[in-house]
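Query structure, 99 tokens:
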């Protein structure tokens, strides 16, 4: 029995990685066949309106630091919200900044 186990160990060391490789290869082939077969337009978010941010805004500059990009986004959205409230209320917001 001990001799049988010593013969079995090397074969397991070869068979298991080979089986894993075959399984991985089969999964890769299956996933490559599935790409593009599902119409993504049914699942992706459709914008409700055109984006008002200019295309040259820092928000779209991937090389700019993320805090600066987020600041520009938040300030732009805040301006849009304030403009909407001002239009309804008829008064201008007073602007102040924290230092």
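Result returned for the query:
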């Amino acid at each position: 029995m001990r001799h049988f186990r010593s013969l079995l160990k090397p074969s397991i060391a070869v068979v298991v990685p080979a089986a894993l490789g075959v399984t991985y290869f089969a999964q890769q082939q299956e996933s490559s066949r599935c790409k593009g077969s599902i119409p993504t337009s049914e699942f992706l978010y459709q914008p409700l309106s055109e984006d008002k941010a200019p295309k040259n805004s820092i928000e779209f500059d991937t090389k700019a630091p993320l805090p600066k990009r987020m600041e520009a986004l938040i300030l732009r959205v805040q301006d849009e919200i304030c403009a909407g409230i001002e239009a309804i209320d008829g008064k201008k917001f007073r602007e102040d900044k924290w230092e």
